């Protein structure tokens, strides 16, 4: 008999960790998990490798991961290099003809292929697509209004070629998943008018999660989750809490489209959405395969 006061040898600890993951693996078996990998979360090479390892491990465990990536900071850098000015209104990039070309080049080109490459290097098989491929996502132009501070009159804000998903054709994704491939999606889509639209990556991920009735939508960003007024992490929230914290100004800026996405996805049958820090090593595994979880979990109520 071993002495129970003695620490377990490493191999036994490893076995214990694996056994602890079993109920979590069973809970997600054959379920779709949509992971939004934000441009800020991409961070350094080591963080990206951890992320790719997590995704491959999920797929090997019988989960069906779908990756939707952003790339806001990377688009910003490329626009700067090309001398194209860029501004955000209400968390969305004002997108003219020249900007949309760069957005598609960076998102559907370099970033998409980089993530596909990282997953491939960890032994997974990923397929990089944008909303345009197979008419997976069609978009319509976003219309926003804002009160003009000078006249105090509500006016239409023209964001140019910024779109929001109008229709998601899940057949394309079903086929990719059935072939045991990992879809990596760039948030670019075509409108019914044939125009290319720049879609916020959170919004795109929410539409995909809703159409696939995903078990989980994970939004990986650069903060630990939703923070209260004292900057403490809020571990659990409901849709009502979300609306209250937007109304009282606790949730602002880029967190607003994220929370709106959460509400949209939950109302379409996604079981829970988690906002978490993608820079934490193996954030995805910690959230899905341990009892601790990570970040802020949002449920219907
Ligand atoms: N209550 C809040 N809790 C956490 N972050 C918040 C909150 N309100 C606003 N934010 C801001 O939202 C940002 C995350 O949104 P964003 O920068 O668009 O992320 P990403 O690029 O990952 O999509 C945080 O870095 C933070 O500055
Ligand atoms: C309309 C709009 O704002 N689109 C975003 C698309 C990329 C994105 O959302 O990337 P992150 O998730 O890294 O922020 C943009 O042009 O930056």
UniProtKB/TrEMBL annotation:
Keyword Translocase found: no
Pathway in which this enzyme or protein is active: Amino-acid biosynthesis; L-arginine biosynthesis; N(2)-acetyl-L-ornithine from L-glutamate: step 2/4
Site residues by UniProt (Transition state stabilizer): 36, 258
GO molecular function, one term: ATP binding
Signal peptide bounds: none
Transferase listed as a keyword: yes
EC number from the UniProt entry: 2.7.2.8
Protein residues bound to substrate: 71-72, 93, 198
InterPro entries, sorted: AceGlu_kinase-like_sf, AcgluKinase_fam, ArgB, Asp/Glu/Uridylate_kinase, NAGK-C
Pfam families: AA_kinase (PF00696)
Domain Aspartate/glutamate/uridylate kinase: 32-276
Record's catalysed reaction(s): N-acetyl-L-glutamate + ATP = N-acetyl-L-glutamyl 5-phosphate + ADP
Gene Ontology CC terms, in alphabetical order: cytoplasm
Subcellular location: Cytoplasm
Keywords: Amino-acid biosynthesis, Arginine biosynthesis, ATP-binding, Cytoplasm, Kinase, Nucleotide-binding, Transferase
Any GO BP: L-arginine biosynthetic process via ornithine
Protein family (similarity comment): Belongs to the acetylglutamate kinase family. ArgB subfamily.
NCBIfam families in alphabetical order: argB (TIGR00761)
Entry function: Catalyzes the ATP-dependent phosphorylation of N-acetyl-L-glutamate.
Protein name: Acetylglutamate kinase
Native organism: Microvirga lotononidis
Gene, per the UniProt record: argB
């Amino acid at each position: 008999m071993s002495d129970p006061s003695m620490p377990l040898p490493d191999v036994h600890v490893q076995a214990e960790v694996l056994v602890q993951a079993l109920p979590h693996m069973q809970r997600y078996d054959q379920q779709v998990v949509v992971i939004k990998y934000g441009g800020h979360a991409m961070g350094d090479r080591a963080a990206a490798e951890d992320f790719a390892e997590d995704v491959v491990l999920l797929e090997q465990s019988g989960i069906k991961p779908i990756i939707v990536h952003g790339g806001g900071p990377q688009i910003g850098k490329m626009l700067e290099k090309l001398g194209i000015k860029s501004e955000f209104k209400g968390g969305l990039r004002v997108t003219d003809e020249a900007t949309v070309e760069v957005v598609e080049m960076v998102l559907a080109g370099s970033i998409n292929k980089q993530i596909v490459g990282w997953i491939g290097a960890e032994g997974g098989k990923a397929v990089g697509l944008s909303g345009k491929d197979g008419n997976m996502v069609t978009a319509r132009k976003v219309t926003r209004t804002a009160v003009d501070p000078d006249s105090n009159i509500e006016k239409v804000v023209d964001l140019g070629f910024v779109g929001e998903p109008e229709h998601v054709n899940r057949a394309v994704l079903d086929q990719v998943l059935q072939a045991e491939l990992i879809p990596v999606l760039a948030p670019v889509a075509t409108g019914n008018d044939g125009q290319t639209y720049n879609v916020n990556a959170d919004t795109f991920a929410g539409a995909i999660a809703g159409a696939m009735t995903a078990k989980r939508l994970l939004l990986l960003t650069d903060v630990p989750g939703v923070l209260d007024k004292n900057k403490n992490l809020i571990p659990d929230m409901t849709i009502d809490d979300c609306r209250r914290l937007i109304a009282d100004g606790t949730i602002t800026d880029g967190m607003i489209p994220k929370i709106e996405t959460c509400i949209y996805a939950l109302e379409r049958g996604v079981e829970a959405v988690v906002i978490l820090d993608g820079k934490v090593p193996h954030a995805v595994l910690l959230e899905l395969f341990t009892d601790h979880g990570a970040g802020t979990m949002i449920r219907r109520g």
